[in-house]
Amino acid sequence: TKPELLVRSFLHRVGFRFRIHGRKLPGNPDLVLPKHQAVVFVHGCFWHRHKDCRRATMPASRVEFWKDKFDKNVARDRKNLALLKETGWRAIVLWECEIANVKGREERLAKLAEEILKD
User: What is the pTM of this model?
Assistant: First the structure.
């Protein structure tokens, strides 16, 4: 997705090396940084239900279907983050809305680099 490409471009530009879509790790993280024992998820606010975000709207039709689907997504995300933590990985979640505008993007991506380097 575009948000993932922005994050990948930034991290590569500042010197991080990573693998994409860690299929062997819980949740298939978008980015895997083995050297730092960290993974990054770039979550869409709609699908992963970013709390209090205007992008996390509820469709008007088939509300029960969507509520069930979103609840399962959130539960799966929570489970995968716990599994990663249990196996020694640091999981960092970036939300689509955090990097949507240019000003917020630069600040959040700089913070991401700090989070990756943090032990």
Answer: 0.90
